[in-house]
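Weekly puzzle thread! Below is a chain. First person to post its structure in token form gets bragging rights.
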Amino acid sequence: MPEQPSATLPPRSVLDAFGVRGIPEPLTGGQGRSVRVGGAVLKPAEGTEGESEWAASVFERLPRGAGFRVPRPLRSAGGDAVVEGWTAAEFTDGRPGPSRQWPGVVATGRAFHAALRELPRPTFLDRRTHPWAVADRVAWGEEEAVVVPELAGPFARLLSLRRPVEATAQIVHGDLTGNVLFAPGQDPVVIDFSPYWRPPLYAEAVIIGDGLLWYEPAPGLLVGGGGDPRWRQMLIRALIFRLVARSGLVGPSWRAGEKEAARFLAATEAVEHGAYKGPARP
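Winning reply:
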């Protein structure tokens, strides 16, 4: 996986606004920007204007006991979910998946998406231009992209395999793979909400695609989607999503030799032929 940047620490004024006390401790995982302070986790607000406030309001309304948990968002005394560019939520302990927890990650995603089914599409999705948003649109044929030379081969192959597919879209978490925490005797915790307007089956395919790309494949990892005939097309889009995002993040001067291309080629062949024949990691 890409190397994580060093975390920036929130200033004292932010801690005071959210009413948290303690010494900031950078957390591993995600993009390496989360910081634990006492019983809270703070991270820079992400996305376009209004996205963090929207996400906090969604988490505040989600039901309890529905097969998953979410960290309770913290607000300032004035009711703001964002203070000086920072958000805060309660700290929830647990061991992150997906290794040895693939069925649990998938099941948690299904329960989470069932709870989001009736949410309307937020307008901020149209304003996002970060690499993951661009890659998502490319995966669904809504935008075109040129990728770095190392990834051009697998990209062209994936595009040749993509076919039209119909499925109902809703709000989904587009990056569940490493963002579900497991603790004995408790429902799993969904963290680092990355909202997209796509079919839940696609979000599930992103989990499995990530497994093929960056983890040792578990037996039967390609078997998913509950037997849905659209499953293969969802996997193809999931791999396009990750490939284009990777290319957009590293930029045109990046050189990774053959390892990264081999990673995507092996995953593409697995989806095309229904069997994994290469290493998930170089």
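Puzzle host: Confirmed. Bonus trivia for everyone else. The longest helix spans residues 231-250.
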